[in-house]
Each structure stands twice: as structure tokens, then as C-alpha cells.
Design brief:
The chain is an all-alpha fold and about 240 residues long. It is built from 12 helices and no strands. The longest helix is centred in the middle third of the chain and has 18 residues.
Amino acid sequence: MNTNIALGAVIGLIVGLVAGFLTANYLNRSEIQASQTALANLRQAGSAGQSPGSGMELTDAEIRAKLKEADDNPENFQFQKTLGLALYSYAAMKQDATLLKDVGRLLERAHNLNPEDYEVLVSFGNITFDLGQIQKQEDLNIKSREIYQKALEKNTRDANVKTSYGVSFLATANPEPQKAIEQLSAATEIDPTNEKALRYLTRAYTEAGDNAKASETLSRLKEVNPQNPSISDLESKISSN
């Protein structure tokens, strides 16, 4: 099978999953099914003679083979993009942080090849943020904000990017809850059902010492999804504030 055709089929299936490795709460059934299909297509694009894995697992050999192919074709924008996004999705699904440096390399390469690609720009911001958190590098957190700002210049009404931008002001050595509140409030105005935005807006109000607003926002989150796994932790933080 032609590699570019097979990888092209991956992008439409997994792009919705790439929303930040560390801040993802869970994957729903449809997202898991999409990942299963994406991984099957990714395997079919593998090198001849390579033994495929099964189920929701990729073997290390499969991953390394695709990374080598990407490194051997550094000017192939579409390959860097689709493989980077697919591996980012897989890393989030498996909670495997060991893949994130490779994801970062692929997405940075794709971004440098085509700075105007919005999907790559946003995902590059997300992976930069994630790596900053894992490696405890504040400079990467600051860099992620710069990338999110560029994305918002292209699309001012992207609630997910506004949310990620807002979170970057909380997950930092020097939290700025008011700046987080500004971005997260704007995100919930655009998308009132955005659970991630409501979750972190509740946290931002709590850190700002505004328990009334925190409780009000938490109530909105409960209305959207009473089963959201962050609810009990947020309740504890408000009660102990």
C-alpha cells in the first residue's frame, strides 16, 4: 500500500484526539474506535516484511520503523504531520510519555516545513506544553503560549486553543490565575459545554480565592457531565480553600 495514502487516512480519524497529553481526562468509545482504525491503517503503511502487532498495541519495532522512515524523508511534510499526530494520539491513549520527544520532533519539523498549517500549529503548541511539564522546563511552557497566540491570531474562536492557552497560566512555576480566567472564560463563552475549559476555570477561580465563582463554574461542569472524573477533586479544593 502507498505510504502517503495510508497515512492520509489516519489524519481524519485521530486529529480530534490530539488535545494535550497531560490534560486529557479520558477517551470516549467513538474515540477509541477511531484510534483502532487509525492504528490499523498505520500498520498497513509499514515497511515490507515487518511483522504487525495486534489490538491497541504497536510494537517498538513498528514505531521505530515509521520514525526512521520520517527521519529518512525530512522534507515530506505530509508524512511528518500525519505520523506525528498519529503517534501523539497513541501516546495519549496509552499514556506513554516516552513517545513525546519523538512526537515533538516530528511536529516541529512539520511546522517548520509549513508554518501556515493550523492543525500542526495547534498540535505543536500542545506537545511543547506537554514536554515542558514533563521535563519541568518553564521555557517550553512560555514557548507553548507563543504558539497558542499564533494559532489564536488565525482563529480567534477556537475554544480548545483558548483553553490550552489558559491552562498554560496555571501549570507553571508562577501561576497567573487572572490571566487563566480571562482565556478560560472566553473559551466557555464560545463553547459552554467544553468540559476541559470548565474544569480549569473552576481551578483558576479557586486559585484566585474566588470560591463563589469556582462553585458556580463547577455547577456548570456538573450540568454538562455529572460523571466528569475531576469533580470530586475540584470539590475538595474549593472546600479546603
